[in-house]
Amino acid sequence: MNEWIAFLAGKFNYWGFIVLMMIGIYAIIAKKNLIKKIIGMNIFQTAIILFYVSTAAKRDAGIPIITHGHGMSGHSARAVDYINPLPHVLMLTAIVVSVATLGVALTLAVKVYRQYGSLEEDEIADSIRARAGGDQ
Amino acid sequence: MKIVALASVLLCGGILIFGTAGFPDFGDPLSPPASHVSPHYIEEAVAETSVPNIVTAVLADYRGFDTLFETAVVFSAAMACFFLLRVFREDERSPSEKLYRHLPTGIILRIDPGGKAPQSNEFEPIDPTWVPHDMIVKTTTRLIIPFIQLFGLYVIAHGHHSPGGGFQGGVILGSSLILYALSQNLRMAIGRMGETVSAVFCAAGVFIYAGAGALCLLMGANFLDYAALSPLFGVDAIQARSLGILVVEIGVGLAVMSAMVWIYYNLASVGRHQEGL
What we know:
Number of strands of chain A: 0
Distance between the termini of chain B: 36 Å
Shape of chain A: elongated
CATH class of chain A: Mainly Alpha
Radius of gyration of chain A: 23 Å
Helix content of chain B: 55-70%
Strand content of chain B: under 5%
Number of helices of chain A: 4
Order of helices and strands of chain A: HHHH
Number of domains of chain A: 1
CATH architecture of chain A: Orthogonal Bundle
Oligomer: heterodimer
Number of helices of chain B: 10
């Protein structure tokens, strides 16, 4: 029993990210509306960000900014006192890029709506088929 | 279809949860991500770059190439939105009848196709979806926007010593302009920061970043090796790294701010830059 609690306490962050990631993938696969697919893609991205940031955590460590760092000399920082900065760097850029790609995704959705008058996948497929039939 | 999707997603999630047994525990200081290159960053960042905020040091110096191309991704996303959506000519998609609002009285005129538009500047052109703005929202945002922008500049400039940097400050600055467009209207925001200005700023931000790297090449060092800029700044090599990071962060902030604003202009008005949301 105790080892189960220890297992849960050690891995709950991964479980959270897996649940979020699966919700995102399910929305991308199963939903027919393009906007809902885009929302699913964003949930997926959030899951990845959560995963990276949670791997950066260290017990009893502070944020990765050296205290009294300005103008110090001869004083060295210990790696155990600061959390891992690398995942934060990666996710910092990923968040802004995800906003920009969200803009592109919505732009494409707008173009699709202009072209086919619908955002539902099956209706778009129907109208593509109708157009192909009309050309013959 | 939905049942197949649910089954495969549950299977995949189950396999992933099974796989977490091999992952390091939460908060483990000896986990693989925390044990290879990250201790070097934490222990040497101040000595090597004179930047106490390790995230900024890694972002703009150790991993400068990554950030350069992330900025390029933001720039090209803004360009993609522009080229896909922007409509320059009045075509059949835009409403054939034009609506004008008389500002002092709030009376709305409808001009049929071919009709003569009112010439007085007491009239403003509006969309069919126009709704009156709330006085409280307008006044409050007008008071608050300068402080938001000041905070955005602080976040960019103080990114060396506190949480912040080009990306965060750029997003804050961009959101202040989007707030202005939401609370007043899109045309007033475009009047403040036009489409050309945002396009030029967006390109200029990437140019500043890449130019700082190219300047290092001209000074005889590797691309983005800011230590070579020390004769230009008149400081030693370590301080030059800190200042080089600041230059790069300003470029990033400029690019991100104008990319956000530009994407918003095109998305909110579906490329017509009329009334918008």
